[in-house]
Amino acid sequence: MSLSSCSRPDSQNPGSSASNTASAPKTGSKLASSLKAYAQSMLDGDKQLSQMGEEQKAIIERAAKGDGTVSRTDYEQAWANYRKCIVDRGWTDPTLKHLDGLYAAPPIDVEGLSDAQQHKLDEDLQYCSITYVTDLDQLYRTQVANPGLSSANYQLIVACLKKNGVVGKDYTSDKLQDDLGDKLDLSDSAVQTCLVKYGYSANDARDESAYWKPLG
């Protein structure tokens, strides 16, 4: 089991892993003063980069003009757009992981892919996720699992693990940081759910059926 960090759905998952898909710091105060302000900060951040697709931008603009929330319909559509983007680039349709109402990109079986194909796959996954779903996914997960907009990801995960009965009441954020490398049981759906809620996509290498084969 290994851990890595990124700002988009996983591009490759060669083994059991939990990748941080959120760009928020793991300690600190708040992501923003409100969910509405958080949505606006995403739009402000995209003004220079111009990476967000029009569909994703329109949804976040509606959120920023309203109360900051994203509808379930828009969330579902964003992930559907992501999948279509992958298919349009010549890959098979990725079956998304679904944990407690939240989606996550599946782990990938890269067996049989040439170096050139793996490079193209990485580029396509990055493009499709940033264009259609990355910021919107972060905003939706925040409204669902982190309405207080805390930036202390480790503390949020620990609280979730305790609530789900995975760890004892004395379990700490420091212990979590030690365990993230290879000690958390990623075959436990309760563990996966807590990680996904707060920006991690958790994958269990022993579950071969969960792996997406880009070439079929």
Class by SSE composition:
mainly alpha
Shape: flat
Number of helices in the DSSP assignment: 8
Q: How does the major sheet shape up?
A: 3 strands, mixed
Please compute the radius of gyration using only Cα atoms.
17 Å
Proportion of beta-strand residues: 5-15%
Low-pLDDT runs: 1-17, 22-27
- How far apart the termini lie comes to 25 Å
Describe this protein with a few key phrases:
216 residues, mainly alpha, 3-stranded mixed beta sheet, two-stranded antiparallel sheet, disordered N terminus
Q: Overview of this structure, please?
A:
It contains eight helices and five strands. It is mainly alpha-helical.
Write a short abstract of this structure.
The protein is built from eight helices and five strands, in the order ββαααββαααααβ. The protein has helices at 35-49, 54-65, 72-88, 115-132, 134-145, 153-163, 173-179, 189-197, and strands at 2-5, 17-20, 97-99, 102-104, 200-203.
Layout: helices, strands, pairs:
Layout lengths: L1 E4 L11 E4 L14 H15 L4 H12 L6 H17 L8 E3 L2 E3 L10 H18 L1 H12 L7 H11 L9 H7 L9 H9 L2 E4 L13
Parallel strand pairs: 1-2
Antiparallel strand pairs: 2-5, 3-4
